[in-house]
Amino acid sequence: MKAMDFHLPTVIRTGNGIFQKTGDFLKQFVKGNKIFIVTDPGIQALGLAERLQTMLAKENYETEVFNQVKPNPRDYDCKAGGEAAKAFGADIIFALGGGSVIDSAKAIAILHTLGGEPQDYAGRDNVPQQVTPLVVVPTTAGTGAEVTRSSVITDTGKKTKFTIKDVHIAPALAIVDPELTYGLPPHLTASTGMDALVHAIEAYTCKLSNPIAEGLALQGMKHIYPYLREAVYNGDNEEARYNMMIGSTIAGMAFSHADVASVHCMAEAIGGLYDTPHGVANSMFLPYLIEFNAEADLYKHATIARTIGIATTEDSELTAAHRLVEEMKQLAKDISIPAFSSLTEVREEDFDYLAESAFLNGSTPSNARDITKEDYLFLYKKAFAD
């Protein structure tokens, strides 16, 4: 029996339309009057940041907007955000956006509190104290970052990604409103939805999984998989949007209390080098890692297939695991996730560098099956050739 702990410091408020109650929730759960809003140009163009400012002004909050967040968030933008938050005198860091915004806001909260560079806090448990209170409103159903203790940032000098993992950066409050995803275009719905599904799968199968994380991961799959295609094809389907958002949050809790694994290691390597959208990258490598990992734990991979309804108890574990591989390939095709070989920036001469980068990722030891740099190189080549 292995020891485990479960620490979720985030208060979660969820439901259709609850974004309108943001001011009420802030008064209940977070102290402070000066709110530094972290977002991106797309969210600001939609008017969501202005809508938030208007709501908060009515509650006598003072706000400032920082919108310099890019997909695959950059270290220098986080540094700029920390300096701007300090100049503003922020009491609360407020993230309004997808995973890149939330990860940036976590790093900004660290730098606002402690100074330095984002890289100073890379790895596990390297944030020495509680940071500026963080409130998050996710606008995608994907990363689950609203309930995690992780922040993934791009080191622009090295062209690699690093992860800060510490309970001190977990949000104080998450306001999870599925209605904010209604306008999300199909390609973003697809990539963020696949990201959420990968979180659930890797949380369930990785070596650091535990009974609580496993239960959350399986429940997350039950919300995500049956509704992902519908959410992509019919974005105004309220049931699909609700289940995707709730599933994403549950999957976030699962992997935050276990880990991700080699799908993420491979995805983060190409994200750091090519700036590939994270969910797209995860989708590209998921089937190949399932196939690679299944022999290490055939039961768990068969259980995933049975949980999402593509295999039954009458099927052998080997058959169920094989169906899972094929279904993940088909799902990616059905929702128009591009193939690895279709990315024009990908060069085969980069594969050795990518394999090394993936191998050095902090989540490599968590993979269900022991994996080497040579294995990663083989998997990059296989995904590219398929």
TrEMBL record:
Pfam families: ADH_Fe_C, Fe-ADH. Residues 189-384 form the Fe-containing alcohol dehydrogenase-like C-terminal domain. The keyword NAD applies. It comes from the Bacteria. One of its GO terms (molecular function) is metal ion binding. Coiled coil: none annotated. Residues 9-178 form the Alcohol dehydrogenase iron-type/glycerol dehydrogenase GldA domain. Keywords: NAD, Oxidoreductase. The keyword NAD applies. Belongs to the iron-containing alcohol dehydrogenase family. PANTHER family: ALCOHOL DEHYDROGENASE, ALCOHOL DEHYDROGENASE 4. This is Iron-containing alcohol dehydrogenase. It comes from Exobacillus caeni.
